Amino acid sequence: MNIDPQLTRILVALVAILLFVAANAIVLVYVERKVAGHVQRRPGPYEVGFHGILQPVADAVKLMGKQLVTPGDGDRVIFWIAPLLAFAPVALCLLPITFGPRTYAFDIDLGLVLILAFAGLNVLALCLAGWGSNNKWSLLGAARSVAQNVAYEIPLLVSVLSVALATGSLNLNTITLTQGTWPWQWNWLINPVAFGIYIICAVAETNRAPFDLPEGESELTAGFHTEYSGMGFGLFFMAEYANMLVVASVATVLFLGGWNGPGAPGWWWFLVKMYAVVFFIIMLRWTFPRVRFDQLLNLSWKWLIPLALANLLVVAFIVKL
Amino acid sequence: MGFIRETGNAARGMWSLAVGLKVTGKYFLSPQITCHYPREVLPNMDTFRGHIELIAKPSNPAKSKCIACGSCARACPSGCITVIKKKAEPAPAPEAAGQQDESIPAGQKKKPPKKTAPKEPSLFALDFTTCSLCGQCVQVCPVSALRFSSAINLAGYTREEFHYDLLQRLAEQAEK
Amino acid sequence: MMTEPLQLETGDFYSRHFEKGPREDTLILNMGPQHPSTHGVLRILLELDGEYILRAEPVLGYVHRMHEKMGEVKTCHQYLMNMGRVDYLHALAWNWAHVGAVEKMLGIEVPERAEYIRVITCELNRISSHLLWWGAYLLDLGAFTPILYAFDDREFILDLLQMVTGSRLTYTYNTFGGVVADLPGDFLDGSLAFAKRMRERLPMYKDLVTDNFILRGRVEDIGHIPLEMCVRYGATGPVVRGAGKPYDTRRAEPYSVYDRFDFEIPTSDRDDAFGRYQVRLAEIEQSLRIIEQAVTGIPAGDFLNPKAPKKIKLPVGETYYAVEGARGKIGVYLQGDGGPTPYRVRLRSPTYSNLSLFSEVAGGILLPDAVSILGSLDLVIPEIDR
Amino acid sequence: MSCPRWIKDLACQCRTECDATTYGKDMNLMPAPEQLRPAAAEFLRHGYFLEDVTGSDMKEGFLILYHFAHFDLPGRYSLMVLVPHEDPRLPTIADIYQGANWHERECYDMYGLIFTDHPNLLPLLLPAETDLHPLVKEEKKRRLLSSVLPLCRFPGIPVEKQTAESTGEDAQ
């Protein structure tokens, strides 16, 4: 029986992407702790392996070694679905991303819609985790994560829409092609407001840096993943980094010209830009205190959404000319 | 009008965030200042007060200046010092004692002059688990026979490992 | 096989007292005794409606060691070491309070040089306490880096004080009639070097944190403690100075040689968490000024009054001696009956009164604000529980 | 040290002036238990804040001291109330000075003093189940009021000198 070549291509791409994401998650854990160390003028992980290279591996082994504990009269099923659900959509989100002129998994016309559809799934995982662990603190964390993600989904969509409107297509490949090779031809200078809004929403969407309220350690003693230990916590941890990858790669494709670059355009330019965005997000975490919850929502509903809509209008007006 | 002021605040706010990022960025690139403890040791470890130790006599490094008066044991708030005075030799040399007996008429039986106990501790133990390094013993010692050691890297598996016999420690130091 | 959950009797003595009848949709929450932002073993019972706090009730006693009974059993010399353990962040001020009370009662007079040494070491200790408060407060608000920068500066002070006293946190350096040991050679110019370095670092604190847009949002306009509330609760220190009243024991009841130094008492007119924040940062500068004046003006002479009695027998009578600690007015009240041990020792700890106003301030605020207000009160729980 | 006029004519059983240099206090006032609340209200009205509430166990009974100080005016004043051992009951001032709420709960912990109509008189520092009052002294250790605080005169308490032997003997 003949298997549709398209299907094999997608399956191979999915496996490649999962490997890419897993490898990157491990590397990002190491990079984050090293960056945190250097910002705080200390070496960061140093003991395990040369300069702490094997530290993430040691952490992973430790997390796998731990006993899988379900909190007393917590809902066992929901409790263990949540981490899996947090990690699942990541591979699908990276599917339509065009890493290089030829290296892309799946060239479909509605790539952007696919990504944004699955990006919203992450909040369901946090909500289930909070509810399933029968812990007052996680409940508060879950409630916060739902409100936060809902509030920041809309400006994200609208800012991405304004870029898609300007380029006239939702296909990531054409979006990359329309941006030239030089930085000033990329969208982040053509449409800076959308870029700013996108970055803020991206950081809020992945619960990072000043917006890490669902797992605000100092208030909610670790928020939704209070009761998780071992691989449950490990999966949430990996999911957070994977989502960061997704968000950074979408940012590079839409605003930083994907694989275009002054020298020979190719997937290496894409990686350089992606890691630059990831580095920026990490630096945010080690500089700013946490935003209060009502300020977080006010920022989105009162500032970002009107701004994004106004930007959309302006872009539409310019496109019409 | 309020809207203009709001955007003004927001702009200044964004600028302050950028300044914050500049500060951490600057420190990200500046050298580290921490000391890798097992490999490097900070230079000022000798001024740190470890547990107390006996000071040796200038004449004989194996003997301590302590006269076993026990005032440090009494002064210690947590009672972690035990000092036992050395006993006099039990049997004075037989002929010396016997000879004095005849010379004294039987009526006034004077006790033979007991050999005075030497002013030295036979045991000077410190229970470092309850010591709080307050220094009362060092201050109150009449012959200032105690001082703070700079023994800092103390680790042990059982509580007994922190019961120090300071005389033995002094003897070891004497050999070194 | 499902292990059926243990039948724990819900709540303990305090939470049962805290419940007031049936509740429709509020949530009783135990913040503490293990909680990342209660700076020790403080437990606060909260009744939450969503994230808004309806009622808050601190529960104390988790680190209570009965210091006052120890005061009645130990002699005055032996009790010195307790002082360092009551408030380990500003141990030298507590040392000074107890030593000052006994000196006042016995009339022991302290030589000039010892007074200057006490001022310098106490002010250094105050700066190290404020630095740790600053770092921990930012940690409560979610910024992980400032505490490392604060500890970078604080290490200099700890090294200086270790050079003099031999320990880094719980000092027993002041004794009756002076100080235990004289200053080593390089201490004075070490503290001058520290003062210079600290002055260069303070603008960084301002850039990274004080002007930060997010921090302002988290700290401004919450935890209003007006002066009238400070009077009803007896709050002192940065809490009352944050409410605008320049009340500082070093000026209100001048002790030792503080009247020789000119330094202002920083206050702020906004009586909220940010006001207290500004007051403490300004106090670091004032302490630097005192240190510099004291270091230049320190006379030679003996550091311990030779006639200070070796055995202390408290005379009949009572005395109250107050010292300005980093968190407020520290008071030691002694009653003597002529015996070697005091008849009654009462320790007035500032954080005890500062925290007692929390349940009134915490009505109707958000949970993250409660964390921010607790941070702005600069709590040290062992000092509350004694 | 000039005491303000209104303190001099506060209703209380008797008062003694003491110099601040050795005692750190300017005046001890000894109100009767029922005169305590008006005195505290008077202090609050003049803006004095309550520093602390201290209990002390004497032969004649429990002596409770309230120390007051002011943010502007120098000087510290203390109210002293004597309560017999058998019925350690005195009115609370927690509704006048909310700061006294915890202090009084602590005195309840340490001495077993009952503060009538205190909002929530629960143990503050000691574990709730045990009913022990650690700062209460054994009978042998208690001292006469005059031998610890010679300046305090309470009507009805004879000011006879504590016999010499008991002050000198070692408390250990």
How is this structure best described in words?
The complex is a heterotetramer of chains A (321), B (176), C (386) and D (172). Chain A is mostly helical. Chain A has helices spanning 5-39, 55-65, 76-87, 89-94, 111-119, 121-132, 136-167, 172-178, 187-190, 192-205, 217-220, 231-255, 267-285, 293-320. The longest helix of chain A has 35 residues, at 5-39. The mean pLDDT of chain A is 88. Chain B is α+β, with helices and mostly antiparallel strands. Chain B folds into two domains: 1-33; 43-89 and 113-175, 2-Layer Sandwich (Alpha-Beta Plaits). The radius of gyration of chain B is 32 Å and the shape is elongated. Mean pLDDT of chain B is 83; it is low at 95-107. Chain C is mainly α and 386 residues long. Chain C has a single domain, classed as Cytochrome-c3 Hydrogenase, chain B. Chain C has a three-stranded antiparallel sheet. In chain C, a hairpin with a 4-residue loop joins strand 6 (317-324) and strand 7 (329-336). Residues 1-8 of chain C have low confidence and may be disordered. In chain D, 24% of the residues lie in helices and 24% in strands. Chain D has a five-stranded mixed sheet with strand order 1-2-5-4-3. Chain D is built from six helices and seven strands; from the N terminus they run H-E-H-E-H-E-E-E-E-H-E-H-H. Residues 162-172 of chain D have low confidence and may be disordered. Chains C and D meet through helix 1, helix 2, helix 4, helix 9 and strand 6 of C and helix 2, strand 3, strand 4 and helix 4 of D.
Offer a quick outline of the entry.
The complex is a heterotetramer of chains A (321), B (176), C (386) and D (172). Chain B has 176 residues and is an alpha+beta fold.
Q: In terms of topology, how is this protein built?
A:
The complex is a heterotetramer of chains A (321), B (176), C (386) and D (172).
Chain A: H1 5-39, H2 55-65, H3 76-87, H4 89-94, H5 111-119, H6 121-132, H7 136-167, H8 172-178, H9 187-190, H10 192-205, H11 217-220, H12 231-255, H13 267-285, H14 293-320
Helix pairs in contact in A: 1-12, 2-12, 3-6, 3-12, 6-7, 7-10, 7-14, 10-12, 10-14, 12-13
Chain B: H1 2-29, E1 52-54, H2 71-75, E2 81-85, H3 94-103, E3 121-127, H4 136-140, E4 146-148, E5 163-165, H5 166-175
Antiparallel strand pairs in B: 1-4, 2-3, 3-5
Chain C: H1 13-18, E1 27-31, E2 43-49, E3 52-59, H2 67-73, H3 76-86, H4 91-106, H5 112-140, H6 146-165, E4 174-175, E5 178-179, H7 187-210, H8 213-219, H9 227-233, H10 238-242, H11 249-252, H12 273-297, E6 317-324, E7 329-336, E8 344-348, H13 350-356, H14 358-361, H15 367-376, H16 381-385
Antiparallel strand pairs in C: 1-2, 2-3, 4-5, 6-7, 7-8
Helix pairs in contact in C: 3-4, 4-5, 5-6, 5-12, 5-15, 6-7, 7-12
